Amino acid sequence: PDYMPSDIVEIQLTKVQDRVSITSVNVVPAPDAKYAGSGTSLIDLKRGGLNYRADKQWMGFQSHIVVLDIGMDLEEIHSVRIDCLEDHGSWIFRPVACEIYDGGQLVYSYQEEVPSKEKEINAAFMEVSFEPRVFRELSVRLIGIDRIPQWHQGAGSVPWIFIDEIIIE
């Protein structure tokens, strides 16, 4: 009657049940100084917003490989989730692959499709689930595209990877 329709808004919620206690995260390469996060932004359970320039939660890397060496209590785990930003207009692309290592041995690999067209700005978890196992040394290797695709205005340039949160269960 006297009401006007409003825009539809979507939100992704993540329920964290049996989170593993992370004691340290070593990131290689180091994030760019402009997008270095807040120090604990990978493990503070605070998701970054879509405005990565104003939000100190995001860590940005102009590299197609980012390695996270994670120190944690010796526990059985079954999933790794990493919050990734995608903003093609700003040359930020989601990783297209994730590899999980235990003590240098590859134990699981996950792949996504390389984008074939520009997508809307979004932040979403990349979730890698596997058979439960006890890890001695957990290492997560994120692999992005090595060059921006031909359909993009920055074709041939090195894209960015932006990550914010890592959840291990």
Could you characterize the architecture of this molecule?
The protein is mainly beta and 169 residues long. The model has no long low-confidence stretch (mean pLDDT 88). Strand 5 (97-102) and strand 6 (105-111) form a beta hairpin. The relative contact order is 0.28. It has no helices and nine strands. The protein has a five-stranded antiparallel β-sheet with strand order 1-3-8-5-6, with no helix packed on it. A four-stranded antiparallel β-sheet has the order 2-9-4-7, with no helix packed on it.
Give the structure's gist in a few sentences:
By secondary structure, the protein is an all-beta fold. The protein has strands at 22-28, 59-61, 65-72, 76-86, 97-102, 105-111, 122-134, 138-143, 161-168. 0% of the residues lie in helices and 41% in strands.
Secondary structure elements and their pairing?
Blueprint: E1 22-28, E2 59-61, E3 65-72, E4 76-86, E5 97-102, E6 105-111, E7 122-134, E8 138-143, E9 161-168
Antiparallel strand pairs: 1-3, 2-9, 3-8, 4-7, 4-9, 5-6, 5-8
